[in-house]
Amino acid sequence: QAQFVESGGGLVQPGGSLRLSCAASGFPLTGWFRQAPGKEREGVSCINSNDGSTYYADSVKGRFTISRVNANNTVYLQMHSLKPEDTAVYYCAPACLMSDYNGSWGQGTQVTVSS
């Protein structure tokens, strides 16, 4: 069972920045997902530690950057130019696609973008 712990969320004004952290368990794929109130969980970004390849949803391209520090098995999601529509609970998991993951989810970290 994967053990992922998300942190770094908070309240930020539109246009602000946050960095989320995912203390992962050494899986080669780590994805960030988010779920806004009343909406389904969706994929945001993903990184493959084997080759460094990354994926971003169109809605966050150019604003979010995913990275990984292998020494401490931590994956980061640096978020800039945050918008109110980025408000959601953010989760990480050892997959890039929702359809590829059927394990349990952590508690996530709340990101609220509001003035």
Helical content (DSSP H or I, runs of 4+): under 10%
Secondary structure class reads: mainly beta
What is Rg?
Answer: 13 Å
Order of helices and strands: EEEEEEEEEE
Main sheet strand line-up: 2-10-9-4-5-6
Describe the protein in words.
The structure is a single chain. This protein is an all-beta fold and 115 residues long. It has strands at 5-7, 10-12, 18-23, 29-35, 42-48, 54-56, 64-69, 74-79, 88-93, 109-113. The chain is globular. The N and C termini lie far apart (39 Å).
Summed up:
The protein has 115 residues and is mainly beta. The protein has strands at 5-7, 10-12, 18-23, 29-35, 42-48, 54-56, 64-69, 74-79, 88-93, 109-113.
Write the layout of secondary structure elements.
Blueprint: E1 5-7, E2 10-12, E3 18-23, E4 29-35, E5 42-48, E6 54-56, E7 64-69, E8 74-79, E9 88-93, E10 109-113
Parallel strand pairs: 2-10
Antiparallel strand pairs: 1-3, 3-8, 4-5, 4-9, 5-6, 7-8, 9-10
